[in-house]
Write a structure and sequence with these properties.
The complex is a heterotrimer of chains A (313), B (300) and C (253). Chain A contains 14 helices and no strands. Chain A has 313 residues and is an all-alpha fold. Chain A has one domain. The longest helix of chain A has 29 residues. The model of chain A has no long low-confidence stretch (mean pLDDT 85). Chain B is globular, with a radius of gyration of 19 Å. Chain B has a single domain, classed as ABC transporter involved in vitamin B12 uptake, BtuC. Chain B has 11 helices and 2 strands, in the order H-H-H-H-E-E-H-H-H-H-H-H-H. Classes of the chains: A mainly alpha (313), B mainly alpha (300), C alpha/beta (253).
């Protein structure tokens, strides 16, 4: 039935975005590292997975082969290879970017991170030999070819990521990260290396974003640079802040609310005029929602909850 | 080489005023505002409104556009940023909200005008020789106006009372408050100036290129690069940074490849952040996190 | 008795101001040394330099025979030197128990992979740490508030939290910046007792910045007097009490 198909689509997208939301929580919620380059790591994961799993030859490549003087074929490895590669490459890119950026004070880090996604976007657009430029990569195989089964796979991965994020919170590493967030002077004076803590949080979060990217590539089965835009980054920020920064359940809720209803739900309302109007209205709506939520309930719908020691031990 | 000079100057002319404006806004209000890029876009479109829709000549349109843009900026400040600042939220939250506000502005413009690129209705430009350069009258106008306005702003900062108030507030907000200066008023005036400068930058960009709803957002990173390279706490640094970034970008376009222009700006910014994070003309080391252990030598 | 810590001729300039003007100090193992002096004398500044918050412009600092000036705060802490802060800083959005659980050094699970993979080790470590923290919190009068967010504590309790954290790092040298500031008479006595007990049972050396005379005279020996970033005098309590320069500058005058 069509409605199930539509629900499945939304659910898959919500699940994939949730992974990015949890990753942002590790960056910003736990460790106070504002990452405005989320779309960039998402793209790295998507492209890594796509390049490794797409079929050996397809039409766009032949066309571009003429321009670029011959191109390598794609590798047609199974999904699992693509997925792991996505995580690894996103982590590596995150690490390299982190070396200069993580020494900065948070607001400068925020500004500098805006350029990350742009840089990666440029790279994807211009390095035709690797990414086929604006034509993107098509025919990315969905594992098992069955959308329902793929959704279960995505859900499982989301569950694992959720468990990992929760585990970090209660573990010593989560306390170190939150200590970095609260007061670096103290945390440093207690013997924890601030840069190392930041770098770990950063790399882990970027790896998760890469994982989300891989899932996206296999879900959409075709990717092109124009998909990985600042809007993606911004949507993640919005649902994380609305749902409740630092609280992983809140983030899931935020993903369902924002991504579920705004991004996909309004697609079924009548289009009010030219095709660019409805998306713009949706974006204004989420932007306003963010402003209102931060103004009137800055802790989000589900705020962070203090843990009791008795529950912990 | 002449190409470099003329393109460099033109890019500088579009970047200099917004950089100066943002520098002042950040220095005085002490928070980063990421709506600025979309305010630049708004400036261009509001001027476009006067120019194309109402049919005013360009100069008048520019002035009215600046006024409208300043009004927009003050509106955003009063409704969104001031309440949050009063609540003393984490400045990063303010940053996220400012991105949100920019988002809304950008999409409103998109709804109002559509996604296609626009051009100002200005008389056809004639090219003239000025020394080694070959520029159109429009381009000459832009460069001259930019220089004049920049000089005007510096004179204002140095010699007028508003300038003194702005400097006092940026150096020591608590002391200024005690002395009876209304901080909020100074913020508003600073923001008005910053938005007017943004509008000019947007109009210059529109004259030299096209006007699209994403134009300001795209240039925001470049402007931050100008500020960081020049020194974020120094208005002269903003101009100096714009000069360096502009020429670096055009040199990259000429000798390496045009699409990588913006990457050159970004790369320069990263390099400066690694090597001299307070910027070439900047003062204290405000961007570093000290406890990351890369600061072994003495503080300045 | 062996010297555990010494700072030689520390100079620090802030713009044109000489915050530290050739200050020197030597600490012997298992002693409780005090630094006293008028406000602005540079006591906290010295703590900041010794703790690695900023580097001195001139001078060397040795701890257990190694040079530590120029190291980062976390490196200095790992070597066994912990300091507290004059204005108690707390990790506000974390609970009291989380604040103190953060303190032990080099815990298993402080890196993401070990947090995920070394379940058993982390769990038993947390249990062990909590047992010790429980009794510490009891001594410090913080047990009731163990599940409270640190930002909700009163100023006095925050100070106790600060000290508890420092103690949990199991230092060999503990530098306390005004540990009894804002504390009630009972709390002050409790802190003094705790310091003595830690010195006797765990062999911790103490360096204390203090203003309260009863604490200084009854607990600390030797006493260093600091004035405008320089040494003014140092010696045992009787000597200091009767030193003319000290009396002029600080105690009586």
């Amino acid at each position: 039935m069509e409605i199930f198909s539509w629900i499945l689509t939304i659910a898959t997208i919500v699940a994939i975005y949730s992974i990015m939301g949890l990753a942002l929580n590790i960056h910003f919620g736990y460790t106070n590292l504002p990452n405005f380059g989320i779309a960039g790591f998402f793209a790295v994961g998507a492209y890594a997975s796509a390049i490794l799993t797409a079929p050996h030859r397809f039409r766009e490549m032949e066309i571009f082969a003429g321009f670029a003087g011959g191109m390598p074929g794609r590798f047609e490895y199974p999904f699992i290879i693509g997925f792991i590669a996505a995580i690894v490459f996103a982590a590596i890119v995150g690490f390299l970017i982190g070396i200069p950026l993580l020494r900065l004070r948070e607001d400068y880090l925020a500004v500098a991170s805006i350029g990350i996604a742009e840089a990666i976007h440029y790279f994807a657009l211009n390095e035709l030999w690797l990414t086929t430029g604006s034509a993107g990569i098509r025919l990315i195989p969905m594992p098992t070819g069955n959308r329902y089964i793929f959704f279960i796979i995505v859900l499982l991965i989301l569950a694992v990521v959720f468990w990992i994020t929760q585990r970090f919170y209660r573990a010593p590493v989560g306390r170190v990260w939150r200590g970095v967030r609260e007061d670096e002077v103290i945390t440093s004076s207690l013997g924890k290396s601030i840069f190392n803590a930041r770098m770990w949080a950063w790399v882990v979060g970027c790896a998760m974003m890469g994982a989300a990217g891989s899932l996206w590539a296999h879900y959409a089965m075709a990717i092109q640079p124009g998909e990985f835009v600042p809007t993606t980054t911004f949507l993640v920020w919005i649902f994380v802040m609305v749902g409740g920064l630092r609280n992983n359940w809140g983030i899931l809720l935020g993903a369902v609310l924002i991504i579920g209803f705004f991004e996909q739900g309004t697609r079924f309302l009548p289009a009010l005029g030219a095709p660019y109007i409805m998306p713009a209205i949706r974006h204004i709506a989420v932007g306003l929602l963010l402003i209102l939520v931060i103004r009137f309930r800055p802790q989000g719908v589900i705020p962070e909850r203090a843990a009791k020691i008795e529950a912990h031990i | 080489m002449d190409e470099l000079l003329s393109y460099g100057l033109l890019t500088f002319a579009t970047l200099a005023l917004p950089s100066l404006g943002l520098c002042l806004a950040i220095k005085v209000t002490k928070y980063f505002n990421l709506t600025y890029g979309d305010i630049i876009t708004a400036g261009a479109f509001l001027t476009l409104l006067c120019n194309l829709t109402f049919g005013f000549p360009m100069i008048i349109s520019l002035i009215i556009g600046m006024i409208f843009t300043a009004a927009l900026g003050v509106f955003l400040h009063k409704t969104i940023f001031k309440p949050l600042m009063d609540l003393k939220v984490n400045p990063l939250i303010l940053l996220v909200v400012s991105l949100g506000a920019g988002f809304v502005v950008r999409n409103l413009i998109l709804i109002g005008w559509g996604p296609q690129p626009f051009q100002f209705s200005i008389p056809l430009a004639r090219a003239k020789h000025i020394g080694p350069l070959f520029l159109t009258t429009n381009q000459i106008f832009i460069i001259l106006t930019c220089i004049l306005v920049a000089v005007g702003v510096f004179l204002m900062l140095r010699y007028t009372q508003l300038g003194r108030l702005m400097r006092a507030t940026s150096d020591n907000p608590e002391l200024s408050e005690i002395r009876g200066i209304s901080i909020e008023r100074v913020y508003v005036y600073t923001w008005i100036i910053a938005c007017a400068l943004a509008a000019m930058g947007g109009v210059f960009m529109g004259i030299l290129g096209t006007i699209k709803s994403g134009m300001g957002g795209g240039v925001l990173v470049t402007i931050f690069a100008c500020l960081i390279v020049g020194g974020i706490d120094n208005p002269y640094g903003a101009i100096f940074g714009a000069l360096i970034i502009a020429f670096a970008m055009e040199a990259t376009a000429i000798w390496i490849s045009p699409p990588y222009k913006v990457m050159a700006a970004y790369l320069l910014m990263i390099i400066i952040l690694l090597v001299k994070p307070s910027g070439l003309l900047g003062g204290e080391k405000i961007q570093w996190k000290y406890f990351l252990g890369f600061l072994r030598s003495r503080q300045s | 008795m062996a010297t555990i810590f010494n700072a030689n001729d520390i100079y620090l300039y802030f713009g044109g101001i000489k915050a530290l003007d050739g200050f020197s100090i030597e600490l012997e193992e298992k002693t409780i040394t005090a630094i006293i002096g008028p406000n602005g004398a540079g006591k906290t500044t010295f703590f900041n330099v010794a703790g690695g918050i900023y580097p001195a412009d001139r001078g060397e600092i040795y701890f257990k025979g190694e040079r530590i000036d120029g190291l980062r705060p976390d490196q200095i802490c790992l070597k066994g030197l912990t300091r507290t802060f004059q204005i108690a800083r707390e990790l506000g959005e974390m609970t009291v128990w989380e604040n103190v659980m953060l303190a032990p050094k080099n815990q298993v699970g402080e890196k993401p992979f070990s947090a995920l993979l070394k379940f058993g080790a982390v769990k038993s470590q947390e249990k062990g740490n909590w047992q010790r923290i429980e009794s510490l919190l009891n001594d410090m009068g913080l047990y009731e508030e163990r599940n409270e967010l640190a930002k909700n504590l009163s100023a006095g309790k925050r100070k106790m939290l600060e000290i508890s954290r420092a103690i949990m790092t199991e230092p060999e040298l503990l530098m306390l910046d005004e540990p009894t500031a804002g504390a009630t008479v009972d709390e002050t006595k409790a802190i003094m007792k705790a310091i003595e007990r830690l010195r006797d049972e765990k062999g911790i050396t103490f360096l204390v910045v203090e203003h309260k005379m009863e604490v200084i005279m009854n607990l600390c020996n030797p006493i260093y007097v600091m004035y405008y970033g320089r040494n003014l005098a140092n010696g045992d309590p009787e000597t200091i009490q009767t030193d003319k320069r000290v009396l002029e500058v600080y105690l009586g005058g």
